[in-house]
Amino acid sequence: MSELPPEVTSADPAICSSKETQDSQTCDSDTLGIAQIETNDDSLPSTPQDLDSSEQMQSQEIQHPASVQCAAFDYIYAVGQVEIVFPNEGIKRQFLQAAMELAVDEKAYYEVFTNKSLAIGDPNRDKYLYLAEQVSWTLVIQKQLSYHLTPATKVELEALIEALQPPKDTLELVYTCVIGHSSNNHDSNLAEIVCHQVYHQTLSELHNTIQKISSAETNAIQDVIKALEVEPNAGRDDFDRAKNFVAFRYPDIYLQTHKMRLGSATVPSASLTDITFSQFDAVSEHKIVDITLTYKENASAKHHYYFCRIDVSGLYPFINTEIQQFLPLLNTIPLD
To answer: In this structure, are residues 273 and 295 in contact, taking their beta carbons and an 8 Å threshold?
Structure first.
């Protein structure tokens, strides 16, 4: 198992867009699941950076210069809640009139924009789409209006509309992930994101998706979400972009944590205690983030260490190195 499989539409929270690998190395579709890892310490690299140089070169063999050139904008992978703002009184009154015609609440944005929740593809669904095209879309992060959102195509607009649909039978927040790049084309005090992919889910939906794909149990999933500190963030820096990607799109970290909790004949049960991020200083133009996971055996003071690498050079982060075990240098091992 590597990244989540390609999605059909960008609004589907359960599966990952094939766009996410368009500028990346192609992962072998046959390598589903995590291979058994040798636990003989002598066979392990002493740090993630100490992997054999030939392996490093192999993992970076496919170059995409266009995705790593210095751009005049920032790549964004933000997490927040989508809200709309009426840019003027005329649009607001048009919306209220549509809500009255449909006999829905004046804040039932999803129902108005979709003509009372008609399916995508239904020709009558787009009756009020002109309103969705003219309102201002925003992303709220930690209760602050943080970004103005500009959908690149109708696909992203539909995904933003879907993010407005209230979840059923729960008061949970809907986490909307927005992948795009910054822009200065909008006359607003807010930073602008041109959205190239939008997907959303509650944490419960994320939990159910990860459980279905990886078979990880609830405690393991909660351990990873807690250690990653998954919460709304601006997704501008490399670490936040890597974190948001693995939290929502890389189920293997949940599966590995599940396996560690269960234990095996060679490795006793261990719990996830920490996840850290660092820059990987490779001889490459690519921006690569090392993610280190630390597990502590439940019946002893012994620790086990795993890492993976995420390439955040381009618009869509991707797995540079799959999760695997390593042995840290002695002076980096925590003392209990």
So the answer is: yes
The 10s digit of each residue's pLDDT in 145-175 is 999 999 999 999 999 999 999 998 888 999 9
Token couple for 183: 């822009």
Answer positive or negative: Cα dihedral of 279, 282, 286, 292: negative
Distance CA 218, CA 208 (A): 9
Q: Is the pLDDT at 291 greater than 90, yes or no?
A: yes
**Tokens found for residue 127:** 């009756």
Count of CB atoms situated within 10 Å of the CB of 173: 13
Residues 6 or more apart whose Cβ sits within 8 Å of residue 252: 1, 2, 34, 214, 308, 322, 323
User: What is the per-residue pLDDT across 222-256, written as a single tens digit (0 to 9) for each?
Assistant: 999 999 999 999 999 999 999 999 999 999 999 99
pTM: 0.77
Instruction: Report CA torsion sign: 62, 254, 17, 180.
Output: negative
Residue indicated by tokens 């459980």 = 211
Q: How far apart are CA 148 and CA 140, in angstroms?
A: 9
Q: Cα separation of 245 and 319, whole Å?
A: 9
The total number of residues shown for the chain amounts to: 336
- Half-sphere exposure of 71 toward its Cβ, with a 13 Å CA cutoff? 15
C-alpha to C-alpha distance for 109 and 161, rounded to whole angstroms: 8
Q: What is the DSSP secondary structure assignment for residue 123, as one 8-state letter?
A: G
End-to-end alpha carbon distance in the chain: 34
Helical pair 252-262 and 218-228, crossing angle rounded to 10 deg? 120
